[in-house]
Design a protein that fits this description.
The chain is of the alpha/beta class. The chain has six helices and five strands, in the order E-H-E-H-E-H-E-H-E-H-H. Helix 4 (92-100) packs parallel to helix 5 (116-126). The radius of gyration is 14 Å and the shape is globular. Bound molecules: D-ribose.
Length: 144
């Protein structure tokens, strides 16, 4: 069976954290599709949200991670797309619930709002937690 692929993207506000989380995801055994940005130079977060969304829509990646300064811009941008459930998480409980209840397919983090160890906990939970289905399935379907 092929390794699962995770698409990652960030703007300049999330660039440093993306570097660390990319290493973590590879250590967890995922193939990482790093869609930029590739430096701390100022860029526009919707462009990178779009790249990650397209990778998921096109089947090149199963899920994604987006990082910007607050996480807010990235989550707004990603959630404009049908079938995308991007969850802005601030701790491992929110990351776990985003998977269990919401079947979130993109984890969004704010580099300027949470510390790296917390971000790593979010990644760890998000990518090891299954969707619970059941009553949550009905609710998630209504989002579509
Ligand atoms: C960039 O300065 C900042 O606005 C961006 O990273 C993000 O926080 C937007 O929501």
């Amino acid at each position: 069976m092929s390794q699962k692929t995770i698409a990652v993207g960030a703007d300049h506000g999330g660039y440093e954290m993306k570097l660390d989380l990319t290493v973590q995801l590879r250590d967890m055994g995922f193939t990482v599709l790093d869609l930029g940005t590739d430096s701390a130079d100022s860029v526009d977060y919707p462009d990178f949200a779009e790249l990650v969304v397209k990778a998921i829509e096109g089947g090149e990646a199963e899920r994604g991670v987006l990082v910007c300064g607050s996480g807010i811009g990235m989550s707004i941008a990603a959630n404009r797309h049908k079938g995308i459930r991007a969850a802005l998480c601030s701790d491992e409980v929110s990351a776990e619930l985003a998977r269990q209840h919401n079947d979130a397919n993109i984890l969004v983090l704010g580099e300027r709002l949470i510390e790296l160890p917390v971000a790593k906990q979010c990644v760890s939970k998000f990518f090891s937690t299954e969707f619970e289905g059941g009553r949550h399935e009905r609710r998630v379907k209504k989002l579509g």
